[in-house]
Design goal:
The complex is a heterotrimer of chains A (about 260), B (about 325) and C (about 270). Chain B has about 325 residues and is of the alpha/beta class. Chain B is about 35% helix and about 30% strand. In chain B, strands 5-6-7-3-8-9 form a six-stranded mixed β-sheet, sandwiched between helices. Chain B has a four-stranded antiparallel β-sheet with strand order 11-12-10-13, with helices on one face. A three-stranded antiparallel β-sheet of chain B has the order 2-1-4. The longest helix of chain B has 18 residues. Chain B is globular. Chain C is about 75% helix and about 0% strand. In chain C, helix 2 packs antiparallel against helix 3, helix 3 packs antiparallel against helix 6 and helix 7 runs antiparallel to helix 11. The chains are: A mainly alpha (about 260), B alpha/beta (about 325), C mainly alpha (about 270). At the A-C interface, helix 2 and helix 8 of A face helix 2 and helix 8 of C.
Chain lengths: ~260, ~325, ~270
């Protein structure tokens, strides 16, 4: 944890030298969210609900989508990108010699502070949606939201790390990012609107459904205990699997390069 | 529209430069957010003179070495002569064209090779890039094939041209790069560090190729290099530029007289003696065979005095190596990277 | 005539190189294209849900015509991929631009020919993707011969227009390097007013009117509608005329801007 804080501080200091870029990034977040809002408005010109979701509820989904996107851009994407680069350039060896857990090290080295503007903008949109909803948020809903959000972030992290460690030799880094950003767009809407086959993929293979739709469902009183438990169980299993693959992969890596 | 016989014929000057100067306007940025914001609207700038009042003439078929430390203005001058940079003042004429008009006929007759730049398609064999140059320069097919095969042979490229460029070594890539730049048989070649980073064999190969190319096609070559060997092997004439100004233009041999106006006398004595009254003693590790440094114009007088006053067995006069000359002339470490 | 033949040779040579080169990267190209499919699938599903809820139709489109729209979308989107304006900074910094300036050819021809060659690879690779999407989403499409013919022309018109638009956008880099936000504004306007997110006819009237005065629809919505319909022959002609107008305007714009841009470039960078 101390390691995390140190890296975070360095990241913050680096970024603040470019405060003007922060303003530009904020503008870009606003443009992205603004576009999403326009599309929502266009949809609700034609209809009053989308698969049972009202406009304010979809605002909440969009808020959560933006927040999760911000978290991914803040910590997951830069670290995984750096890891890919290290493996490619051969600098990964140095990391293995450091006296710290290598998985932790590669996961918290880099931060893109600007992405936090997405978290802020997403929170505002989400709050706006919540305020326009007829129902209020109970403490239990809020708690479910926080737990699901954290679990969702962990799930995305696991999948990304699995792709990175498992497939780095034939997939280029930009392609993973490209692919993720493409598919992540699906999270702008609740996964329940998609056909079953797609919903299954978006839940268990590329867990965008878990990461975006579940926290939103908690806030809009749709979450069920059963699905909550499934998600948490899935997260624990996937995290353990990722850990195993990482250990196996690094052992094989050092074996191969020695 | 043939590219061969326009503007300039054999005996004319191929490059004429007069009062050429380039001043860059460089923005100054102070640290901090406020100046970052104000600089968006109201930029402070500094004028930096890169090239100042440079003038020279190069005859067709000449090979001229362009020397000077990093940042002296060599590359800036080459860029102005090839039309990449607009001079701030003065005139330049290459093959009768004004370079920065970037006339297509002009561009068809020159080439600029920069040691650290890559024009070849990275993922394809050089042969494919050659094809592209053929199309771009409108080289008729028979001429193209002839020139291509000649270049492949002279540069000893062989099978290399059929391998993807990314699989070539630095030297092999440079040779392919040079071949690609010469397919249109340019009359004027601007070469900026063509041998940078190459091993000695490869440097030698490129050197002899350039000499050969110059002979065959009576091409004019203006060349910058960090490697003295390049210049010594290729150029009878050199130009020295420092801080943007032309400091010397003439025969390579005259360069050492002009700047390294000193000689080293190596004196063999029958018994050791103190020679510090004759000049600066630079090496007395062997007491019977000291070296002293003297000014170029006093060589005769000092030699006569030494022979008369000391027990001299043997005496040689050495000219300093050009690296030393350059170093001396600029008062900086010569870049022998 | 000889000039025309020269350009023909030039384009064929460069396009051939691009085809060879991009074919080497077919795996990467496929990944990229598959990642790109996510976007239209989302739109497709959303609008199909809306149509189903509204009794099977929204703005005259059924789920199956919506499917047709967004499957053709994937091809048109690929035709829209041209040299990115974000690439100019690197091009200037790494000296590729200097290299092109030394050659007796306007640099836009390199990009036009290169990406055109790439498109040939893309179109071939797109066919199986389209087949899978068609199998999954059951599009309804029944074009007349005139529609197919106009579509075949219009996708290349779209390609040309977007190439030149983004070239002009990219050239802004010569004057300022803080271009990211400006580019974003452009892309957002394009996204909404081209027919990419929403078929134009689902947009409010004022937006449709606005779009008529902008080039975006010519690069995206028009080619799709040309094939998917409903569209009359008169509208097909009108669309082509609009494209022709934007091609001419783009060419003039690029030429003017390029002249000024090289002045800036040759006075500071080289």
């Amino acid at each position: 944890m101390r390691l995390f804080l140190i890296f975070l501080r360095i990241g913050v200091m680096n970024e603040f030298q470019y405060r003007i870029n922060l303003a530009i990034q904020l503008l870009q977040s606003l443009i992205a969210v603004g576009t999403g809002l326009v599309v929502l408005a266009l949809i609700f010109r034609q209809t009053t609900t989308l698969s049972g979701w009202t406009q304010p509820e979809l605002l909440v989904v969009m808020g959560v989508y933006t927040i999760v996107g911000g978290i991914v851009g803040f910590i997951i994407e830069p670290n995984m990108g750096q890891l890919m680069q290290d493996i490619r350039m051969g600098t990964f060896d140095y990391l293995l010699t450091k006296p710290a857990d290598s998985q932790l090290l590669v996961s918290v080295r880099q931060f893109r502070l600007w992405s936090l503007t997405d978290v802020v903008v997403g929170a505002i949109v989400g709050a706006w949606g919540l305020a326009s909803m007829s129902a209020t948020v109970r403490p239990i809903d809020a708690a479910g939201f926080v737990v699901f959000l954290a679990a969702g972030a962990v799930l995305i992290y696991c999948v990304w790390l699995l792709i990175t460690t498992g497939a780095f030799w034939f997939i280029r880094m930009e392609m993973v990012q490209e692919l993720f950003q493409g598919i992540y767009r699906a999270g702008q809407y609740p996964v329940s609107i998609y056909p079953t086959w797609l919903r299954t993929i978006l839940t268990f293979v590329l867990p965008i459904g878990f990461a975006v739709t579940f926290p939103s469902e908690a806030l809009t009183r749709r979450a069920t205990v059963t699905w909550g438990l499934i998600m948490i169980g899935f997260t624990v299993v996937l995290f353990a699997a990722t850990r195993m693959v990482w250990k196996f992969g690094t052992r094989r890596y050092s074996g191969a390069s020695a | 529209m043939s590219s061969g016989d326009s503007a300039v014929s054999g005996d004319h000057a191929s490059i004429v430069v007069d009062g050429l100067g380039k001043t860059f306007n460089v923005p100054v940025r102070e640290p901090g957010l406020r100046s970052a914001v104000t600089s968006l609207f109201n930029r402070k700038t500094n004028d930096v003179v890169a090239v100042d009042d440079v003038g020279f003439t190069v005859e067709a078929g000449e090979i001229v070495g362009f020397l000077g430390p990093n940042g002296a203005g060599k590359t800036t001058t080459l860029k102005m002569l090839s039309g990449l940079l607009h001079p701030s003042e003065g005139q330049a004429s290459v093959l009768g064209y004004t370079p920065f008009d970037r006339d297509k006929e002009f561009l068809r007759q020159i080439t600029l090779v920069m040691g650290n730049r890559n024009q070849l398609q990275w993922d394809l064999p050089a042969l494919d890039s050659f094809e592209m140059s053929r199309a771009v320069y409108r080289i008729p097919r028979p001429e193209f094939v002839e020139q291509r095969d000649e270049l492949i042979e002279l540069l000893d490229l062989g099978e290399l041209v059929s391998k993807p460029v990314r699989n070539l070594s630095l030297g092999e890539r440079m040779k392919a790069e040079i071949a690609n730049s010469l397919l249109h048989r340019p009359a004027v070649l601007f070469l900026d560090e063509p041998t940078l980073g190459l091993d000695v064999t490869m440097q030698r190969r490129i050197r002899s190729f350039l000499a050969d190319y110059n002979r065959r096609h009576n091409a004019t070559i203006l060349l910058t290099s960090h490697y003295m060997a390049d210049v010594e092997a290729l150029c009878r004439r050199v130009m020295v530029i420092n801080n943007g100004s032309l400091m010397f233009d003439g025969d390579l041999e005259l360069l050492s007289e002009r700047f390294g106006g000193h000689r080293t006398l190596v004196v063999t004595l029958s018994e050791p003696a103190d020679l510090s009254t004759y000049g600066e003693v630079v090496d007395d590790s062997t007491p019977s065979r000291p070296s002293i440094r003297i000014g170029g114009d006093e060589a005769a007088a000092v030699t006569a005095r030494l022979l008369a006053e000391q027990p001299v067995i043997d005496l040689t006069i050495e000219q300093p190596p050009i690296d030393d000359v350059i170093e001396r002339a600029f008062g900086v470490e010569a870049d022998t990277a | 005539m000889s000039t025309l033949r020269w350009y023909g040779d030039l384009y064929l040579t460069m396009a051939r190189l691009a085809i060879i080169e991009q074919f080497q990267y077919r795996a990467a190209n496929y990944m990229y294209m598959i990642g790109m499919v996510a976007e239209p699938v989302v739109y497709l599903v959303v609008w199909s849900v809306v149509a189903t809820q509204q009794g099977g139709e929204v703005g005259g489109m059924t789920p199956r015509t919506i499917a047709a729209y967004y499957i053709v979308w994937t091809l048109v989107r690929n035709m829209n991929i041209v040299f990115t304006p974000f690439g100019w900074e690197q091009r200037i910094r790494e000296g590729q631009l200097s290299g092109q300036l030394l050659r007796p050819l306007h640099p836009i021809h390199y990009d036009l020919a290169f990406f055109a060659g790439w498109k040939v690879v893309v179109i071939v690779m797109w066919l199986p993707i389209a087949a899978v999407l068609a199998w999954l989403f059951r599009p309804e499409i029944d074009p007349r011969l005139s529609q197919v013919a106009v579509f075949a022309v219009a996708i290349w018109g779209a390609y040309l227009i977007r190439s030149m638009l983004l070239w002009m956008l990219g050239m802004v880099t010569f004057w300022t390097t803080r271009v990211g936000a400006a580019f974003d504004f452009f892309f957002t306007a394009e996204l909404l007013l081209s027919g990419r997110v929403v078929p134009m006819r689902l947009m409010p009237d004022w937006a449709q009117t606005l779009a008529r005065y902008l080039p975006f629809e010519s690069t995206f919505g028009f080619p799709i509608t040309a094939l998917v319909g409903p569209i009359s022959d008169a509208e097909l002609i009108e669309g082509l005329v609009r494209q022709a107008f934007w091609i001419v305007a783009g060419a003039v714009g690029v030429a003017l801007m390029w002249r000024r841009a090289t002045k800036v470039f040759t006075s500071v960078a080289g």
